[in-house]
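Researcher: Please predict.
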Amino acid sequence: MSLIGYARVSTTDQDLTVQLNELKAAGCEKVFAEKRSGTTTASREQLALALDYVRDGDVLVVSRLDRLARSIIDLRHIIDQLQAKGVGFRALNQSSIDTTRPDGRLMLHMLAAFAEFETELRHERQMAGIAKAKAAGVYKGRKPTVDVDAVRSLRADGVGPAEIARRLGIGRASVYRALA
């Protein structure tokens, strides 16, 4: 039996050091780590590599359940993949989550439901805050990255799209969108 670690943080400015240290201290022989959002499993290359790497009898270890997945559907999919390969799952900071035991499987599902609920609540609060800021005139969205008037003016002067893009330091696709 080998312990294989997986560590994840959501943004590039976050640090993986604490998770990596916990996984090494737990005895993980190999650790896969990445800086990607946990709201989906798409584009999580290191997770895909970890799931491909584990073998029958191994245990995939994470520091916390939310490092693996933020939705019950994604979590269930990952756990099903692990079980199909004969691989267990363990969350270090939630010692009751260990799919090699029946009570651990039960706790996994209960905590996954709470984690998804928490994510949905956070999203609702964020949307409510944005709506309130918009109503107060504080939130105006992202500032345009392209000066549409400058693009149209240059085009009216007979400058081609590639030259407009070069002069303004933008992509040609942005020029075409501004002209549309």
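Model: The CA atoms of residues 65 and 86 lie 19 Å apart.
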